[in-house]
Recover the amino acids of this structure.
């Protein structure tokens, strides 16, 4: 589903799946391909928006939990896209995917990495914010011109990411939420559930999170 020029949203297909986002620009980036079982359905939905698998240049992930990255290898196969990870994800690649798979009871497929990025994704407008807490290698993607934040499992519509999974850290989560809430965001795109449109709705959501979660942590 097209949200605005160059920004597409594909809703999670089941409890153990994640929202997928496609950012079109000089390069087309697909963020969080989700669970392998739903890849066919995802590609069909993308096709309805005239996005062919071959158009995807880069596959990136917000973090290494199987509900977000399980289908990375399969999508790479059908699209020919390059898989890119943040330096912190590179550091945790094997052990975190294995640990998280064990705890969540999903055997996540391993994938090959083509390149590692740091604070921005080359040939795109995406800036990277390292936002540990839900997991140590969680990142957010911020499309500067579009004022769009892809927040992974850091913040949701009226919710925040859990910190009880392997290597989770509550203090880091709070710091990360404070960091991203300072970004001028008109479109907030979380890893699960609904999206938030409009600066005032995004702000209201951060206020809700502070009041209902952060002050009790
Ligand atoms: Zn997660
Ligand atoms: Zn998730």
């Amino acid at each position: 589903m097209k949200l605005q020029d160059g920004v597409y949203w594909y809703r999670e297909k089941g409890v153990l799946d994640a929202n997928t986002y496609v950012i079109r620009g000089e390069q087309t980036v697909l963020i969080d391909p989700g669970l392998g079982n739903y890849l066919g359905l995802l590609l069909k939905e993308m096709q309805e928006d005239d996005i062919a698998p071959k158009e995807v240049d880069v596959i990136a992930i917000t973090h290494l939990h199987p509900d977000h990255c399980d289908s990375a290898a399969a999508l790479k196969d059908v699209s020919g896209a390059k898989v890119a990870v943040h330096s912190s994800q590179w550091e945790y690649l094997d052990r975190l995917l294995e640990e998280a798979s064990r705890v969540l009871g999903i055997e996540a497929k391993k994938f090959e990495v083509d390149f590692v990025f740091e604070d921005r994704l080359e040939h795109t407008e995406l800036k990277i914010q390292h936002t540990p807490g839900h997991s140590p290698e969680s990142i957010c993607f911020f499309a500067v011109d579009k004022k769009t934040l892809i927040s992974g499992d850091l913040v949701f519509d009226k919710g925040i990411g859990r910190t009880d999974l392997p290597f989770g850290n509550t203090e880091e989560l709070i710091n990360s939420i404070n960091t991203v809430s300072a970004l001028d965001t008109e479109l907030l795109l979380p890893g699960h559930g609904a999206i938030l449109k409009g600066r005032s709705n995004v702000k209201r959501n951060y206020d809700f999170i502070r009041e209902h979660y952060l002050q009790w942590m």
Summary: Residues 57 and 81 are 5 Å apart (CA to CA).
